[in-house]
Amino acid sequence: MMKKSIYIFIIMLFGAVIVSAQPSVVEITYKTTDATQLKMKIYYPADYKKGAKYPAIIFFFGGGWAEGTMDQFKNQALFFASKGMIAITPDYRVKSRQGTTPFESVKDGRSAIRYLRGHSAALGIDPDKIAAAGGSAGGHIAAAADLTQIDEATDDLHINARPDLLALFNPVLNNGPGNYGYDLFKDRFREISPFHNIKKGAAPAIIFLGTRDKLVPVAIAKQYQQKMQEVGSRCDLLLYEGQGHGFFNYNRGSKYYNETLEQLTRFLKEFGYIK
Q1: Neighbours of 125 (CB within 10 A)
Q2: Which of 24, 93, 159, 217 meets the CB 3.0–4.6 Å disulfide criterion with 100?
Q3: pLDDT in tens, 55-67
């Protein structure tokens, strides 16, 4: 499988057109730190053409910054590749595998976006249309990539790490006292909490949240939306009555998986990411 993926990637780099009934999937290493090689899977449209520029969407998995797999959003990635976008699912450092903290997770999120933008010509990505998405802690990483300045020292800081658009699925938004993650951050919460770093120019966002989510209170999401609007940034908040954490996942059934995809498709169309 790896050899086939590399072969497909080489074909694309040298100008051939990939024609397939299904999107092509390439797996590459985007970052090496200590003994860890971080990979990402890139899902290309079936009619991908070398030389064209495609809007991209990168999905960060959830798991409390402690666990998770880059295949969580595989089905969403396949869906948006079928809509003519390039979709990416990256790995990032987590506590269970690397013994790291959420700060390293956010660093990796920003590194991943930098990689996409820095290699946009070779990857076929429009560097001005990179959306970041994620669920739970992955949603936190997507938002923190836009709003914080938590960077890997070895990154090329001349490359912009901020996404142009956000799609957040039951995201961890506020890491302040009494909120999720505060026990991990303590007096450093302001460095990493998206809520506490909202500023003018924040990327437009859409948030999907169940009204019975026990980790992300609806009140916090509404406060986040209000604060975004106060700085002049669009923030759509879609509430799903009676739904809990992770309601949008493919393995929870088709109803809310399909509904959230439909709403995200609408949002992406408004910004010209999908024709």
Answers
A1: 22
A2: 93
A3: 999 999 999 999 9
